Sequence to fold (89 residues):
Amino acid sequence: MAKRLTEIKSELDNQLGKRLMLKANSGRRKTIERSGFLAETYPSVFVVQLDQQESTFQRVSYSYADILTETVELTFFDEQNGDIAWGGQ
Fold:
C-alpha cells in the first residue's frame, strides 16, 4: 500500500475508467461491497460510479485518506486477463 496521499492519488489516476470492487467500512461492523468503475479523481477525493443493479446510489466519493486508513479497499480488475491489476489493501 502507498504510504502517502499523493502516491495513492497518482496510482488511482493511472486506473481511471477501470472496473473495480469497492469494499467500504460504513461503521458499527457494517461493510458494503459494490462493483463499478473509477470515474474521476480530484485533489482531495475520488469518485466511483457504481453498477446500477446493485445499489440505489449511482456514485460515491471517498477521500484518499480512507484508503490510507483502510476504511476503503479498492480492487481493480484487468478486463483482458481477468486478473487483479491493483489492490488498495
The CA atoms of residues 3 and 43 lie 17 Å apart.
